[in-house]
Amino acid sequence: MFAAPSKFFASIVCSAMFAICTPHAAAAQSLETSACSASPASATAPYQRQVANIDRELGVQSDYASAHDLSPIPEATQLVIAGRDIRGRPVKLDPHAAVALKEMIVAAEAQGVTLQIVSGYRSADYQAGLLRDKLRHGMSMQSALRINAPPGYSEHQSGCAVDLTTPHSKAADASFARTRAYAWLTKHAAEYGFRLSYPPGNSHGIEFEPWHWRYVIGAPPAR
Ligand SMILES: [Zn+2]
Predict the structure, then answer these.
(1) What local confidence, expressed as pLDDT, does residue 16 receive?
(2) Counts of helices then strands in the chain (DSSP H, E)
């Protein structure tokens, strides 16, 4: 299982160096067109209309996304079970992200750091439900959108983003930034292709999320 990233990266090298290396071309192509590539496909017009409808119904201002440097993120088309979340529920991720995450978790564990999954793929409808819950509990839309991106704009829809925690740390809480797990991630996550999406003061108006990491194909392979 953990040999897979090497195979994927080998496919890129192979196709780049040897034009006749066709057995790996399909794998390389799937990397380039993956939702986790550095330049993923844009959301289709029907999907953008669907997202606009969901957000209008929720009460998200129509110019919110453009004002916060947010682009529509297509729903994942390929998902695999990447593991279990802290409640034991299966977590789905893009196949490439799932392999990289498993390798990162194993590497962290080998260095005495336990990484646990809080959340992986979430659909636009699920994201809408998260926002509705916050509004129902009296939170303003403005405050809710500092915690959850509007439906259609969440990286979780791509299947490439994951929320992580560690034992004895409150899930999806700023205190995660003070854990050994976060220190390990800031040092090593990039080696596995994961990047912190929402650092302090990010342009999306989303609060600092030390737990939220997005896998991007093209980052250096794990050592
Ligand atoms: Zn997240």
Answers:
(1) 33
(2) 8, 6
Q: Is residue 193 part of a domain?
A: yes
153 CA to middle of ligand 1, Å? Answer: 12
Of 112, 114, 109, 118, the closest CA to residue 84 belongs to: 118
Q: Are residues 59 and 156 in the same domain?
A: yes
- Tens-digit pLDDT profile for residues 1-11: 333 444 343 33
Residues whose Cβ atom is located within 5 A of ion ligand 1: 163, 212
Ligand 1 center to residue 8 CA distance, Å? 25
Ligand 1 centroid to Cα of residue 172, in Å, is 8
Domain around 144: 43-215
112 and 131 both lie in a single domain: yes
Measured over the CA atoms of residue 184, residue 186, residue 187 and residue 193, the dihedral's sign is positive
Q: Which pTM was predicted?
A: 0.83
CA 120 to ligand 1 center in whole angstroms: 8
